[in-house]
Design brief:
Blueprint: H1 3-28, H2 32-46, H3 55-63, H4 65-84, H5 89-129
Helix pairs in contact: 4-5
Length: 130
């Protein structure tokens, strides 16, 4: 077999796997409702205690689904931002985390100063009002 034929086979295999894999994953991935239904259906056969999925936990899981998806999307977005940097991702993430901590500390100091001003104002009003 010639080298050209081998490269064509390798390219075709790469394209099939790189495109077909994610498509198959998306197509065959069950939804939460399907998982709950499947668990409920098979719980009598596989569970030694014959327990079913707790309806309260199921409700909480379904309620928190959008939040988990949003958190994951934020995580992926941050990873994309970190990958644009010329530094390794973990260094960019550490830098971003440190900056976030510094910003939150500054905001906390501002809130504390604002609360202190309010207290002093309330004390002045109480002293002048009596």
């Amino acid at each position: 077999m010639s080298k050209a034929g081998m490269y064509i086979k390798m390219a075709a295999t790469f394209i099939i796997l790189s495109v077909g894999g994610p498509v198959a994953l998306f197509y065959f991935q069950p939804t939460d409702e399907e998982l709950f239904k499947l668990f409920k259906h098979h719980s009598n056969y596989h569970s030694p205690t014959n327990q079913k999925y707790n309806p309260e936990l199921q409700r909480k899981s379904l309620e928190n689904r959008e939040g988990r998806q949003q958190d994951f999307d934020n995580f992926v977005t941050k990873l994309k931002e970190y990958s644009k940097s010329d530094r390794p991702i973990w260094e960019a993430a550490a830098r971003d985390e440190a900056q976030t901590r510094a910003n939150s500390a500054e905001e906390q100091k501002k809130r504390e100063a604002e609360m202190q001003k309010r207290r002093e104002e309330i004390k002045r009003q109480a002293l002048h009002g009596q």
